[in-house]
Design goal:
It contains 13 helices and 18 strands. By secondary structure, the protein is an alpha/beta fold.
Length: about 375
């Protein structure tokens, strides 16, 4: 039984604690400063709650004592508080951040650390990076690596064709910040909400456009090895144009707190969602110019007697699987660990990672 400190009692925190507790191998202490959020956590012998303000250094030190790892399911702004505390305590650190600057901080902290620092353990970045790198390794020479992910309502009912399914802070952050990419062999940054493309799968129409953070560390890993590498978020058609109006024309990107209030006031959450994962790799293999594609859809389902959304399941399965692989010695035990260091075959057969293996393949 390994003791885990989980920071954040939100939608994803509820799913992570459920997955780990019902496995029987982990005891999870869910910490948050919001008592109402803690009260919504599952009632299970493997889960306890702790009211904790992460900015209280002494309280953080006490909470980390004796823990195998700390998992951050908090907004990316908390990385600068939780990650240093993990290093001080000598505890493994895992998070879900899509924020590029936060990941750079984690990488710096990992230098000389006696524990592992593994950021970006969710869906995108996270699982999408593991899939793309596994595919890329099988090519003799790479031309393009295109990664597309969408967390979408099954039944869109507003002009945005969107419901809140995960962190509002993370959503706005990825819509506002520059996006890393490799273009014609050169590492660069491209603007968010641009380079819109349209495509159809299973009779459904989608659009995809640049958003920040989804590539994780792949730009660094594949630099000099691929001509073009990019990540785009998938939405239903029309979403991007409205976001561009709000964030750029009305300048709400400069008032992100207001944008968050508007979203959380007007957009309901939903458990009736679908996660689309779509990766296409082209290049030379066995002397031929070849394309390979990975496409999956994941839907909401019942876990531990309760219905959870597809984005809760996929995000939580990512970080729980990486934790499990770390606990079983299948990942480095100290220093900075990239998602590309996770073996796809180990991931997909893992008891948590199998949430992806059970997905319905697009076109099947």
């Amino acid at each position: 039984m390994k003791n885990i400190l989980l920071m954040g009692a939100g939608k994803i925190g509820e799913m992570i604690s459920t997955m780990l507790a019902i496995s029987g191998d982990y005891h999870v202490t869910v910490a948050d400063r919001d008592e109402a959020a803690l009260a919504r956590m599952p009632k299970h012998d493997g889960i306890s709650t702790l009211k904790l303000d992460a900015t209280d250094a002494a309280a953080m030190d006490a909470a980390l004592k004796g823990k195998f790892a700390v998992l951050s399911a908090c907004p990316y702004t908390m990385t600068k508080i939780i990650a240093p505390a993990a290093k001080k305590a000598g505890v493994h650190y895992l998070d879900l951040t899509e924020d590029v600057a936060s990941t750079r901080l984690v990488k710096e902290l990992a230098e000389g650390a006696n524990s592992a620092f593994i950021p970006q353990c969710g869906l995108a970045p996270g699982f999408i990076s593991i899939v793309a790198y596994d595919m890329a390794k099988k090519f003799d020479k790479l031309r393009n690596v295109h990664m597309r992910v969408g967390a979408l309502p099954k039944y869109p009912s507003n002009a945005l064709k969107y419901n809140l399914t995960w962190s509002t802070d993370g959503l706005i952050n990825e819509y506002c910040n520059p996006c890393e990419a490799i273009v014609n062999g050169r590492l660069t940054e491209v603007p968010p909400l641009e380079e819109v493309e349209h495509f159809s799968l299973d009779g459904m129409e989608y659009e995809a456009f640049n958003t920040s953070g989804g590539l994780g560390t792949l730009c660094e890993t594949l630099s000099g090895k691929v001509d073009n590498l990019n990540y785009r978020t998938v939405r239903y058609p029309g979403h991007r144009d409205i976001l561009k109006l709000l964030l750029q024309d009305l300048r709400l990107s400069e008032r992100q707190d207001l944008m968050k209030d508007i979203f959380e006031h007007a957009l309901p959450i939903t458990l009736q969602d679908v996660v689309l994962v779509f990766v296409t790799v082209t290049g030379m293999k066995d002397g031929r110019f070849t394309q390979e594609t990975y496409a999956h859809k994941v839907y909401a389902k019942d876990i531990g007697g309760k219905r959870f959304s597809a984005i809760q399941i996929t995000t939580s399965a990512g970080i729980c699987t990486v934790l499990d692989l770390l606990a079983h010695g299948k990942l480095p035990q100290k220093g900075f660990v990239r998602q590309e260091d996770v073996n796809f075959d180990d991931f997909i057969v893992n008891r948590f990672g199998s949430a992806y293996a059970q997905a319905v393949e697009v076109g099947a």
